[in-house]
Amino acid sequence: MIKKSLLSSLAVLVLYLLFWPVQVDPVSWQPPQDLGYSNKFPPNQQLSQLHRIELKGDIGPEDYAMDVNGNIYFSLLGGDIKYLDPNGEVHEWVNTGGRPLGMEFDKEGNLIVADAFIGLLKINPKKEIEVLLDEVDGIKINYADDVDISDTGKIYLSDASSKFPAKDHGTFAASLLDITEHGGHGRLLEYDPKTKKAVTLAKGFNFANGVSMSHDQKWVLLNETGNYRILKIALNGPKRGETQVVINNLPGFPDNINRGANGLYWFGLVSPRSKPLDMLSGSGFARKVVQRLPAFFHPKAQRFGHVVAINDEGEVVYNLQDPLGMYGQTTGALEVGGSLYISSLHETALARTLNPNVQQQVKQ
Question: What pTM does this model have?
Fold first, then answer.
């Protein structure tokens, strides 16, 4: 009787693992060979010493933007946008009612925000919030992720995943679902505030994440998290909307990207690559089976600190790491007066490099 019961239970388990519906429909693909922390990214501890500015209960300063007065604004998990003044004091500002992520100031002093739950927002100096965009080409913006603004005023926004809404799943869980499926649901949107019209500039990305204008304003750089690479998308001429690879085969998942001094671009790697996820990449069936297992068995982000600076040719100029993840799951870096302000997905503090001039950091 016991044996029969065990066999029945085993049969039910097998049927569950094979056939139970899951939210993802994984696509088979072949990732580049994971070279780990070598070649362009030799291991170091240059990001291990940071000055922390505790946030007293707030979580996830995901991105920064600095206004003309030197105040540094940052977006938080609970929907708040706060700012750090030049004296080091943190001030309340607004709550969007969603999950603000990437932010940039326009020339009129408005803060343009990619809110993962709501869409593209404009917040004026009076703290009035306006939804600029929540749908493009008849498709709802389900995961507004990062934003940048051209010198002409046009706004470029990444919709990380049109299939997995951040509001339904949460930003982190939705990113894991999209990266696991690898179905190319990300897109880059262009919005013109003058005409109030928006277009899809490019699509088919595997989790479209960080966005930055190129220094010459001819391209938009886009972090494609699920493919471990950074692309650039042409803005003008007959090649408008076409993509080129800037840097490929990164050792982790790229998140935000920001322009820095001397023609550089700073970006964060939120976690090292997942060996199980790469191993299962060629089998959509196997990834479905894993998705049916308890969350404990799913690939997870690791605590690791890593920010990188590249030039227009995709050459690695700075490679700053914190293998112990004392300030982990780093999303990006904002260069301010030679220092770096480091952002994070889940930390409870802001972080700044102790070295007053990042240009003096040892190149790797």
Answer: 0.93
